[in-house]
Amino acid sequence: MSSPLKLVFKKEHSDEISNHSVNPVFSEVVSAFMSRRRFLQMGMVAGAAVSFPYLVKPENAFAAKANPSALSKAVSLGFTTIPVSTADTVTVPEGYIARPFYRWGDAVGIKGNLPEFKFDASNTTDEQAAQAGMHHDGMAWFSLPQGKENPAHGLLALNHEYIDNGMLFKDGTANWDLDKARKGQNAMVYQLSR
């Protein structure tokens, strides 16, 4: 007996026609409409159509794009810009606050299993399983109750994409452990409320 996945994917790369109706396939429609000569004709028409406004009134061709009054009405994001910096710190605009609430190694709230993070990478595989993973790169917010727009209460789902061997293992890759690496790459869901 073949595996279920082979049954699902067995025609994935097949050239067999899956539309068994009397309708023509797309390649036949294109061939009937588009000869090489027809393609060149359409390209010339498209080029002329794009150029037409500039040929009629070239002095006004860019006037709408360069209108200073339209630019002055741009909407502000509501905060002042911050300068580029190489400092090892988070910088936010004046009037804003940034503080971490979820970091790699934070205990994830498993009752009776709240291991402390060890900066020397000596946390065990079991401890890493009860701690936040590394390198958050994907986030999604799900308001609670479900179906309501609520920025003050919801679930925050985070994806921990990859690990840094030099930070997760005391000796880098010398005694690398697949199970511990997997515990550092995972997804977590937190319930948050203000």
Automatic annotation (TrEMBL):
Gene source species: Klebsiella pneumoniae
Domain of life: Bacteria
Protein's UniProt name: Phosphatase
PROSITE patterns attached to this UniProt entry: TAT
Coiled-coil ranges from the UniProt annotation: none
Transmembrane annotation, as ranges: none
